[in-house]
Design brief:
Blueprint: E1 11-15, H1 19-31, E2 35-39, H2 42-51, E3 56-60, H3 68-77, E4 86-90, H4 95-104, E5 108-111, H5 116-130, E6 138-141, E7 144-147, E8 152-155, E9 158-160, H6 164-175, H7 183-191, H8 199-213, E10 222-225, E11 229-232
Parallel strand pairs: 1-2, 1-3, 3-4, 4-5
Antiparallel strand pairs: 6-7, 7-8, 8-9, 10-11
Helix pairs in contact: 6-7, 6-8, 7-8
Bound molecules: calcium ion (CA).
The site of calcium ion has 5 residues, from loops.
């Protein structure tokens, strides 16, 4: 998913005190088209929300000083932020805590450790629920269209059958046509950062993606850039 055409990138305020987690969240959200702000404690979070209303607040439960739950309660108590989409992030997964999180008014609840991909999917789902007009439903390039809600790809009006990995690969390429993606970068974006995947695995999936897209003798839109990586490029010939 991504921002609707011409729309600004959605702004996510990350309220978290652990530097490695801040880094992970910031990296993944920005790679997926969000803009991020970082608050390391509750006071900073409330100040930053006052300065610029975020599209989503991602709130860690365990924070120094004011807890995430308390920040959530304070945001819900103010007119300006009553409807603000809030995602609680926590290491605690017990049912009682989960219920408390929802009672306090969080819209969604994510338990650590989480997969960045799942997190990003949940944020887009929340954006779609709370502000449907801001979220694009499709990505298009040349005669390829991806339906982001249904996870389906079409070429020239015909369905293209892709495995989940090839679908994600195509989606990443479609997010930024003409951009050359290194194999290493594709591994981060498609398989996840920190996941060990050999670079030639990327080549295997690109080959399968090409085969699926180019069925019926259609022209190849994926450009192999020697020594650099791959790009989606309709002008490659
Ligand atoms: Ca924490």
């Amino acid at each position: 998913m991504r921002a609707a055409d011409g729309g600004p990138r959605p702004y996510v305020l990350i309220v978290e005190d652990e530097p490695p987690l801040i880094e992970l969240l910031k990296y993944n959200l920005e790679a997926e088209g969000f803009r991020t702000g970082i608050a390391r404690d509750g006071d900073e979070a409330l100040l930053m929300v006052d300065e610029e209303t975020p599209d989503i607040v991602m709130l860690d439960w365990m924070l120094p000083e004011i807890s995430g739950i308390e920040i959530c309660r304070q945001l819900r108590a103010k007119d300006k932020t009553r409807e603000l989409p809030i995602v609680m992030l926590t290491a605690r997964g017990e049912e009682a805590d989960r219920l408390r999180g929802f009672e306090t008014g969080a819209d969604d609840y994510i338990v650590k450790p989480f997969s960045p991909r799942e997190l990003v999917a949940r944020l887009w789902a929340l954006m779609r629920r709370t502000n449907p007009a801001s979220v694009a439903e499709t990505l298009e390039y040349d005669d390829i269209v991806i339906d982001l809600a249904k996870h389906k790809a079409m070429r020239a009006g015909q369905p293209v059958h892709l495995s989940p990995t090839e679908y994600r690969l195509l989606r990443v390429l479609m997010e930024r046509p003409l951009r050359v993606f290194s194999r290493e970068w594709l591994i981060d974006l498609v398989w996840g950062r920190g996941v060990y995947v050999e670079e030639r695995t990327v080549d295997v999936h690109i080959r399968r993606l090409r085969r699926a897209l180019n069925a019926h003798g259609r022209k190849d839109l994926i450009r192999t850039v020697r020594g650099a990586g791959y790009a989606l490029d309709a002008e490659r010939h």
